[in-house]
């Protein structure tokens, strides 16, 4: 474990009480509805919001009942939702401030500026920056502090799609070295970046654990919001040039999805429960390309004639949303063996 917290605070009528631990590395998605307490939690960990209780990182105590390290002595790279940059300094000045504090090398400086594509903006005053530009400066500043823990509050919300993709890759790489606590409401960021999940609900940590496990729960955070989906870890198999289909394997089964060209990585696939249909026997005369043998693990009635089915499939979890009529017709119950069907286009 890296960060361990057992803290509590009040802000007006709101009460936050969190007991959690972050793995040594990887991106932990801090998920929760607006007002759940995400920003308050990040500020408390960073030392910007007074709180009670224990905060420790590895064997260093940042706060206990006797003492609290001031914010500037905690090795945290923090990017808040509305980043505050120094208004009297230009972009370079803002970055230099962070680099000096951490003693970042010239090499690191060049690397971060290149990753965040800030070179053309270096001489600009920060007052005139767009929301997305200011976010990139704040992200660069957080990276330049050479932190032991990186905490980002919706860091990409103002960026265009292309930059979001590029910076997600940057953040994922940072997560290979250190723990990243990452607030987002965006499903694609959850799925692309998340290794672990902290689900904050009304000031308390309702769930914490590996992302794939947490999402596959019938009462998981996305299921609660009607957007149930899982992440599958697949292996690259090949590329069908003729049909422009990427081929991946999941256990013995082959998954196919439209792709412009071959990719050599082992992609994570987001599969929404609404894109999965079920059949008791493998359908051979259907346009559906992806048919996976699976076993029903558990079911949840969602009301309004809808039902969420949790399936075990090649050692991983899959969710399917079907009507209660289909559930009854197929006789779905735990232990039933069936075939899960996923349209290739739904996997893009
Ligand atoms: N200075 C304050 N005084 C009183 N209440 C506050 C103060 N700051 C925050 N709160 C309340 O604390 C609760 C948690 O706020 P917080 O900003 O941590 O939530 P959040 O999960 O980050 O929300 P969002 O996703 O909208 O940013 C909210 O109910 C908010 O109104």
UniProtKB/TrEMBL annotation:
Q: What Pfam families does the annotation carry?
A: ABC_tran (PF00005), TOBE (PF03459)
The alphabetical list of record keywords is:
ATP-binding, Cell inner membrane, Cell membrane, Membrane, Molybdenum, Nucleotide-binding, Translocase, Transport
Q: Does the keyword section mention Repeat?
A: no
Q: Where is the ABC transporter domain?
A: 2-227
Give GO terms: molecular function aspect only: ATP binding
Which parts of the sequence belong to the Mop domain?
285-348
Which InterPro entries does this one have?
Answer: AAA+_ATPase, ABC_transporter-like_ATP-bd, ABC_transporter-like_CS, Mo/tungstate-bd_C_term_dom, ModC_ABC_ATP-bd, Molybdenum_import_ModC, Mop_domain, P-loop_NTPase
Question: Which protein is depicted?
Answer: Molybdate ABC transporter ATP-binding protein
